[in-house]
Amino acid sequence: MTRAGKTVEESIVERSRWLISLRWIAIAGVILTAAAANLVFKIPLPVIPLLSIVGILIVYNLIFTFLIVRLRDGFANLQISLDLACLATLVHFSGGIENPFLFYFIFHMIIASILLSRRAAFLQATFAVALFLAMVTIEYTGAMRHYCLVSFIIKDQHSNLLYIGVVSFVFVSTLYIAVYMATSITKRLREREASLAQANALLNEKDRIKSEYVLRVTHDIKEHLSAIQSCVETVAGGIAGELNEKQANLLQRADDRTAKLMVFVKALVEITRIKLAQEIEFDYFSLKDTIESAINFVDTKARNKGIIINSSIAPAVDMINGAQVYIEETIANILANAVKYTSAGGRVSIDVEDDGGNVLIRVRDTGIGIPKGEIGKLFEEFYRATNARFTEKSGTGLGLAIAKQVVARHGGKIWVESEEGAGSTFSIILPKGGVQG
């Protein structure tokens, strides 16, 4: 894997796509510049050679575009070498050493420094210098014709040895300094990214170990709590002997506290299991039936408060791929929260829409809402909004954290829009095909 969590092959393909995109921009730039030079500035340039080079650029860029999925790291070297050769030829046919665009070689050096190793980048710089010096030499000696930029250059400079020497020194030194600086920065960034990737991997491993420990401990606590709860219920039921009023009251309080603690421990076990699971079992199920089941789960509590849960499910919504039990628990939990924090006689609704390859689920209520500054923390583990703690004392602060984990494992997204005192809207997007995140 690479530092960004991508495979080496994916990283190479991504870099190659970037290089190919830059080349299309360069091709367009060459055509526009040549047209402007001839038509606007009246600088006579050899059209056929320039268009021939553009044609070569287009052909091999198309070849690299079609072969991109088969590219290997060496292809970046090859592409840059071809680009340098084409650039040198373009410069030769458009003024040679008189052409100010010869400094575009520097851009290629920066690209090479980003994409290639330091050694390969310096080799490309040496190749660029060789191309430049060869062009200057053959024009100076007359081995090949020099195409002067008439009306742009006052005096022909291709045979001026002093001019050639100064420009060559500046050009060559600039090329190598650019490569040195770019590769130095790139090297530091890569080392930093590698260090961060290693630290991130270590943190993930520590988080996994912590989760395993929490799972073991909470499982043991759950077993002990179950035993305590069973004993308390047995004694409270009078099986171990008749109780006076004070004893019955104390046992009832102990039973209530044990039940609340059991809810908390079960939620903690559940979120830890989800975090530790590499994959959760997916299968096709009816989302429509699942939502109706979730509504039935909270319907009694809603009716006791005079709240009717309205539902609207688009006809196209039915079978999706996922973990049905987890999805149902998530929707039921959000509905239960909506009922819990909505005053008697309020409104709760759930709407499900078809969104192409996804389904969009929205749960709206007219409840207490969420303070603006706390919305971003709502899906954190153990977090409860301040007004929620004031309205309802009991609560684990894990329900929405579990919902976020479940939705994320389905490759979906969950968010909330709310205004304190004006209700909340929880939205969930789930892929129909069940992509595991």
Describe the protein:
By secondary structure, the protein is α+β, with helices and mostly antiparallel strands. 61% of the residues lie in helices and 10% in strands. It has eleven helices and seven strands. The protein has helices at residues 8-40, 47-66, 73-92, 105-115, 118-141, 161-236, 245-276, 287-304, 324-340, 386-391, 399-409; strands at 283-286, 308-313, 319-322, 347-355, 358-365, 413-418, 424-431. The protein has a five-stranded mixed sheet with strand order 2-4-5-7-6, with helices on one face. Strands 1-3 form a two-stranded antiparallel sheet. Strand 6 (413-418) and strand 7 form a beta hairpin. The longest helix has 76 residues, at 161-236. Mean pLDDT is 83; it is low at 1-5.
Molecular shape: elongated
Summarize the main sheet: 5 strands, mixed
Q: Spatial order of the strands in the main sheet?
A: 2-4-5-7-6
Radius of gyration, CA atoms, in whole angstroms? 35 Å
How does the helix and strand content classify structurally? alpha+beta
Tell me what portion of residues adopts beta-strand conformation: 5-15%
Number of discrete helical segments? 11
What order do the helices and strands follow? HHHHHHHEHEEHEEHHEE
Which ranges are low-confidence, i.e. pLDDT below 50, for 5 or more consecutive residues? Answer: 1-5
